[in-house]
Each structure stands twice: as C-alpha cells, then as structure tokens.
Design a protein that fits this description.
The structure is a single chain. By secondary structure, the protein is α/β, with parallel strands linked by helices. Helices cover 43% and strands 10% of the residues. The protein has 13 helices and 6 strands. It has helices at 12-24, 39-55, 71-75, 93-103, 116-127, 167-174, 180-188, 203-213, 216-221, 228-236, 238-248, 260-263, 269-278; strands at residues 6-11, 59-63, 108-109, 132-137, 150-155, 162-165. A 6-stranded mixed β-sheet has the order 3-2-1-4-5-6, with helices on both faces. It is globular, with a radius of gyration of 20 Å. The two termini are 22 Å apart.
C-alpha cells in the first residue's frame, strides 16, 4: 500500500517576519561570519521544523511574495499602503532565506505580479488532485482555500501553537463556509491589507448578512429586505464593495507550477550542512537535524 501523500505549502514571508520580530525585540541580532543578520532566518527554521514535525508532510514547497507591486496594487493604489518598510536588518535576509530553503532541498516558488497567497492557492488547487494539502501561514485570508483535501494551519502566539482548519471546523467557528470568506472581506474590508469594504459594516453584520443571503450577489438581490441603514451603506459604497471582493479573492490560476516529484522531501543532513556552509549559514546546522 503506497504512502498517503501530504504536501505542506509554506507561506515563506509569514514565517520569516514572525521569526524576525520574535527574536529582534531586544535589538540584538544573530549574525553570520560575514556580518549579515540571520535572526529572521533562524526563527523561520525553528517554525518550519516544528511544523514539519507536527504535520509530517511527504512533500514541501515554500511560496514567496516577489515585491510590493502586484495586480492588486494596479486595481487599488492604496492596497497594503499602510504598511511600514521592512526593518533594515531584515532586508538582506530576504534573498539569503531562499538559499537556506534551497539547502533543505525545498522548492522556492514565487512570481512577480502575484502574492504568495496566489501561488499557494494555485498549487493547492493543482496538487489536491494527487495529495492532501496543508497550508502553513499566519494569514486568515488563506482560509478561503479550505477544502475537503486542503486544510490550513494558522500559526498562533507561542512556538508550535496552531489553529488547524478543515471545512467542518471552519463552519463550526465562523458560521459560514470557506469560500464565503471572500464576500466577508468584501463587506467588512481588511485593515491589514488597507481596503475598506463597506463603511460602517463590521464582521458581525457581514457574517449575519452572509448567513441570511449566502453571498454579496444574494445580498444585492435582496436589498429591499435589508434595514434602511444597511441598505444605504451598501448602496453608497457599492463600487468599493465589488473592488474589495476582487482584492480579497486569492487568484488560483497564477502562471506557476511545481510537481509532486519536485516537492518530495528527500532531506540529507550532511548535504544540507555542506550547502549551509557554502552560503555562510553553517551556524544553523543544529536546527536542521531533522529527517
């Protein structure tokens, strides 16, 4: 009987940023021999290895954002416009972390014009035909991808602490099904990504509307049944409602691919150490003694 295939899709930036801020709050930075900060990479590896040991995938892929300009910023200039520039100490770690991931023989996937979420959504859609998929992230937006063969592990505060969502657990917690997350964000907006949705409609009202009418289209078909206040808010912000829904939708047809063969976990600690030494990250060696 063949082993059940399980692919772990890793949101690389989520782990790197979390690893960086978890270790830099005192202003002390781990450096390699060349003087390049590596605390974010060190934190990334700790999270990555814990997740690997927790979920025991047979295949692993790491997905990355490839710059701040995407098709979403073309749709809406202010998209993610409220975010600060990354800390100076983190910037040189963006390229170095990909070399570390390569040293672990894990494919790096990313494409300009798209976010890591779009790569994750595309690969989840492609690979769930052949394997179970678990997505490792800190981003609630990814929950729209939860499906029968796609689960999402949201990293919580504290090392090794995850909220794992399946279609059943998502419905139980949220009261809606995963694809309705798109319309939820369309209605309430997203302060983290800096798009407003419908002004004056928060999560509680948005959830109630979706539970009653199923979707934004269902709500718009039944405007006459809504309270005067909610109807007025929606009609006033109708264009932004449609735009916010587009911004919230993960694009699952990005022009990328990664086969199961490429993603097979074939870790060799001696080879990894050799590769880490070549990129001046041999001080990470103790972390990568996983199998």
């Amino acid at each position: 009987m063949s082993e059940q295939k399980k692919v772990m899709l890793v949101d690389g930036m989520a782990l790197l940023f979390r690893g960086f801020f978890a270790t830099s709050y005192r202003g002390q930075f781990m450096l390699n021999k060349s003087g390049v900060p590596t605390n974010g990479i060190y934190g990334f590896l700790r999270y990555f290895i814990n997740a690997f040991q927790t979920f025991q995938p047979t295949h692993v892929i790491c997905c990355w954002d490839m710059g701040s300009k995407t098709f979403r910023t073309e749709l809406f200039d202010a998209y993610k416009g409220n975010r600060d520039e990354p800390p100076t100490e983190l910037i040189p770690q963006f390229d170095l972390i990909k070399s570390v991931v390569e040293a672990l023989e894990v494919p790096n996937v990313g494409i300009k014009g798209y976010e890591a979420d779009d790569c994750i959504g595309t690969l989840a859609k492609q690979l769930q035909v052949e394997a179970d998929v678990i997505i490792l992230t800190g981003d609630q937006d990814i929950l729209q991808l939860v499906d029968e063969r796609v689960s999402v592990a949201i990293m919580r505060k504290g090392h090794g602490n995850y909220a794992v969502y399946t279609p059943e657990s998502f419905l139980e917690e949220k009261g809606i099904v995963p694809p309705q997350m798109i319309d939820l964000k369309g209605l309430m907006g997203d302060t983290s990504d800096n798009y407003p949705g419908v002004k004056g409609i928060g999560e509680k009202t948005a959830l109630k509307l979706l539970q009653e009418h199923g979707s934004i289209d269902g709500i718009l078909d039944n405007l006459d049944k809504l309270s005067k206040s909610i109807r007025s808010k929606i009609e006033t912000d109708l264009d932004m409602l449609h735009l916010s829904r587009r911004l919230a939708t993960i694009h699952c047809e990005a022009p990328i691919t990664c086969s199961l063969e490429e993603a097979l976990w074939t870790f060799d600690s001696s080879q990894a150490l050799e590769r880490l030494r070549a990129i001046d990250c041999d001080h990470m060696a103790k972390l990568v003694q996983v199998s």
